[in-house]
Design a protein that fits this description.
Number of domains: 2
Oligomer: single chain
Bound molecules: guanosine-5'-diphosphate, magnesium ion
Radius of gyration: 22 Å
CATH class of the largest domain: Alpha Beta
Length: 294
């Protein structure tokens, strides 16, 4: 599976937020307020069967402080970025003139020694273009994609390229890397993220069941659907390795599973800012570990 960290960089208003929101599906792209275990705040993450892409943010590059770009970026940030990210998406807006700020962004991009992709955004807008001013960049950046973040057009080849550039990781590494994600504090964000929701439920199992059960238990989210009335329907299963554990998880007259479900539902609602219907079941599957990691 692929796991890539992507730095999305560009001066304000080139369309970075629009790009993330439309790429990941309307529902996302918020910076976690207090990053703890990740070195750079995660702006958004995209999860697909082929892998995971993390879009990272860093103060002074993508945040509100962007206007102070030159003040914010320093050698340490640069070095850390060079260590941490796997690729750089440099986004430009051809409908606006090149300016001093644009030149600064380019200066930073040049100092990053990771694969770089030049993304020319807003190609839906052709009435006003300063494209000739940016032409020289296409010599410097062999990977160029023209997209409309707003209409989400031509983004698929770009996405494929990002996955191509993302390093391949084995399941154990993926597990370690994604465990970082689970510690992102609320309010979290990506309601499409099955991993996140599964982990949130699993965390409740840990809390409610004590020491004995967790290591024999995992949670799979099978389905997430947004209903017309705004309700978020989530279908999930707690898998455990034997019937004895299953009984414990269900509890007397089902009160334990109800408690776990209620607790999880409350937090998912908080994180997604949606009303949640959580369809939670418990199954015994002695082989889930093989299925999950196999
Ligand atoms: P950011 O500051 O880089 O995050 O830029 P935003 O995503 O906030 O976008 C800035 C403005 O550009 C917003 O008004 C967007 O609607 C607009 N915008 C973003 N992408 C496109 C695009 O592909 N086409 C057009 N026409 N407008 C876009
Ligand atoms: Mg933005």
């Amino acid at each position: 599976m692929k796991f890539g960290k992507v730095l999305l960089i560009g001066r304000p208003n080139v369309g970075k937020s629009t790009f993330l929101n439309n790429l990941i599906g309307q529902k996302v792209a918020i910076t976690s307020p207090k990053p703890q275990t990740t070195r750079f705040p995660i702006k958004a993450w995209l999860q697909e069967p082929r892998g995971i892409l993390l879009f990272v943010d860093t103060p002074g590059i993508m945040g509100k402080t962007q206007d102070n770009l030159s003040k914010q970026i320093n050698q340490i940030t640069l070095r850390t970025l060079n260590e941490e990210v796997d690729m750089v998406i440099y986004m430009i807006d051809h409908t606006r003139k090149r300016d001093f700020e644009e030149a600064r962004v380019l200066g930073i991009v040049r100092k990053l020694n990771k694969p770089k992709i030049l993304v020319i955004n807003k190609i839906d807008k052709q009435d006003k273009t300063f494209l000739p001013q940016y032409e020289f960049l296409t010599d410097e950046f062999p990977l160029v994609y023209k997209i409309s973040a707003l209409n989400n057009t031509h983004t698929k080849p770009l996405l494929d390229k990002m996955f191509e550039l993302a390093p391949e990781k084995n399941p154990k590494e993926i597990e370690n890397l994604t465990s970082e994600l689970y510690h992102i504090p609320y309010p979290l964000i990506n309601i499409d993220s099955k991993i996140f929701i599964a982990e949130l439920i699993r965390e409740k199992v840990f809390i409610m069941m004590g020491e004995e059960i967790p290591y024999t238990t995992t949670v799979l989210v099978d389905d997430i659907k947004e209903r017309k009335n705004g309700l978020l329907y989530i279908k999930a299963r707690i898998l455990t390795t034997n019937d004895r554990y299953k009984k414990m998880l269900i509890g007397k007259e089902g009160w334990k599973i109800k408690e776990i479900g209620a607790y999880a539902r409350k937090e998912i609602a908080l994180a997604t800012n949606k009303k949640i219907y959580l369809d939670l079941k418990i199954e015994t599957d002695p082989h889930w570990q093989e299925v999950f990691y196999g």
